[in-house]
Amino acid sequence: METILRPLTVVGGSILLTLVIGWATDLLLRKADARHPETPLWGLLRRARIPYQVMLCAALLRGSYVEAQVFPEHRATVGRVLTLLLIGSVAWLVTRIAAAVVEASYSRYAHAHAQRDPARVRRVRTQVSLIMRVVTAVVAVVAVAAMLLTFPAMRAAGASLLASAGILGIVAGVAAQSTLSNMFAGFQIAFGDMVRMGDTVVVDGEWGTVEEITLTFLAVRTWDERRITMPVSYFTSKPFENWSRGTPQMTGTVFWHLDHTAPLDLMRERLRDILRECPAWDGRDYNLTVTDTTPNTMQVRALVTAKDADDIWTVRVTVREGMIRWLADEHPYALPRVNTADAALRPSADGLHRPRRPSPDGSPRRFPEQPAKTL
C-alpha cells in the first residue's frame, strides 16, 4: 500500500503545489496590471505562467522523486528526464520574460514618440525585433549545451571538443560563409538605420512595405498582398529605394493628354476643389502645368502632396478620376480626338484666305499654285 500512496502523494502534492503557486502568482500579476495600467508589463508577464508552472513542477519532482520511489530501478533515467525538463522549462521561461520586458519597453517608447518621430519608432522596433531573436537563439544554445552536459559521455568529450574548437571554427566559417554574411548584414541593417520595419521600399521594381526583418532574410509585402523574401545582404550590397527615409511626406504626379483647347485655368480651379474633398491630401502644395506638346495633344501635369506613400497613391487616383469625369461632363472638347477637318490654308499672295469651293463632281477643288516671283 505504501508503494502506491507514496508516489501518489509526492506527485500529487507537487502538482497541487504547482497549481496553487501558479494561481497565486497569476492573481498578483492581474492586480499589478490593474493597479498600473500605464505599463503593459504585468499583463505580458502573464503569458509566462505556463512555462513558470512547468518549471515549478519539474523542480519539485526533481527534488522529491527519490523519496517517491517512482521506478526505483530506473532512478538515474527518471532523474535525467526531469533535469532535461527543468532546463527546457527554465529556458522557455527566460525567453518569455525577456520578450515581455522588451515588448513592454517598446510599447511605452512607441506611445511616447509615435506622433513626434514615427521613423525613430520604426527603427527601434526593428532593433528590438532582432535583439529578441538573438536573445532567443542564445538562450536556446545555452539550454541545449546544458542538456548535453547532463550526459557523462558528453562531459568526457568536452575537453577534446575544446581542443579542436579552432579547426572546427574555421571549417564552420567557410561552410557557413553565406549565412554569416547575412547575419552580419542583419545587424548592419538593424543598427545602421538603412531600412526599418514599416518602411515603404522599391526593390527589383516591386513596391511594398517591409513586414519582417530577421538576421538572415527580409520580407516585403507588396500592394497586392504578395510577400517578397530577400536575403538581408541584398540591401547592403545593392541600391534600393526607401520612400520612408527621412520624412515620409511625398509628392506625386498625375498626367493627362488633352486637346490644345483644354481650359487650363478652369482645370486648376477644379484641381483645387478635388483636393479639398480628398481626405488623403495633406494640404501642403499643388499645381497644374503644361509639360509637353505634340501635334495633336498637350501633356498636362498636376503635382499633389500627401503625408506618406499610401496616401499619395490615393490622392493621385482620386485626382485622375475626378478630372477626367469633370472634363467629360463639362468640357468634352478638351479630351483628345482625331482631327478630321480640313487644315487651315496658308495666306495667298494678296494676304487673303480663299475658301475651298467644291468642284462640280463633288471632289475638293485644287487651286493652282501661285507662280514664284522673279526679280
UniProtKB/TrEMBL annotation:
Record field: transmembrane: 6-29, 50-66, 78-99, 130-151, 157-176
Disordered as annotated region, ranges: 345-375
Domain named Mechanosensitive ion channel MscS: residues: 179-245
Pfam families (UniProt xref): MS_channel_2nd (PF00924)
Places the protein is found: Membrane
Keyword line: Membrane, Transmembrane, Transmembrane helix
Protein name: Mechanosensitive ion channel family protein
Organism listed in the record: Streptomyces plicatus
Lineage: Bacteria, Bacillati, Actinomycetota, Actinomycetes, Kitasatosporales
